[in-house]
Amino acid sequence: MHVSTRNIWTPLFKSAQESGLAPEFLIHWGHAGAMATVLLAMGGYGTFLGWSTRLGNGSTVYPLSLGQTAAALHPQLMGLALFLFFLGGQGGTEFRKH
């Protein structure tokens, strides 16, 4: 027996769509919207931190830096964004098959 994540998630999405909880637009574009949020929020702030470090402000603690310096948070944030993109690619291939 072949078990995949598609067999787990598809019935849940179909029941949410049939009950009116999730409209077709959300089912079709929801994953892309979530990945765009990762790109803009994490990637944008990570890029800002990277350029701040490059311009000599790596020891600065910015308001959204959770108490860490720009130089310390940049690789952590960008590494997490990369990890989420790898996970998102797997999810995207599942949504593409619908």
Structural write-up:
The chain has 98 residues and is mainly alpha-helical. The chain contains three helices and no strands. It has helices spanning 5-18, 24-57, 70-96. α2 (24-57) runs antiparallel to α3 (70-96). The longest helix has 34 residues, at 24-57. The model has no long low-confidence stretch (mean pLDDT 86).
Question: What characteristics describe this protein?
Answer:
98 residues; mainly alpha; elongated
List the helices and strands and how they pair.
Layout: H1 5-18, H2 24-57, H3 70-96
Write a compact overview of the structure shown.
The chain has three helices and no strands.
Helix content class: over 70%
| Mean pLDDT across every amino acid position | 86
Radius of gyration: 18 Å
Count of helix runs: 3
Instruction: Give the tally of β-strands.
Output: 0
Helix-strand category: mainly alpha
Strand portion: under 5%
Low-confidence stretches: none
Instruction: Identify the overall geometry.
Output: elongated
Main beta sheet: strand number and arrangement? none
Q: Please provide the ordered H/E string of secondary-structure elements.
A: HHH
First-residue to last-residue Cα separation: 21 Å
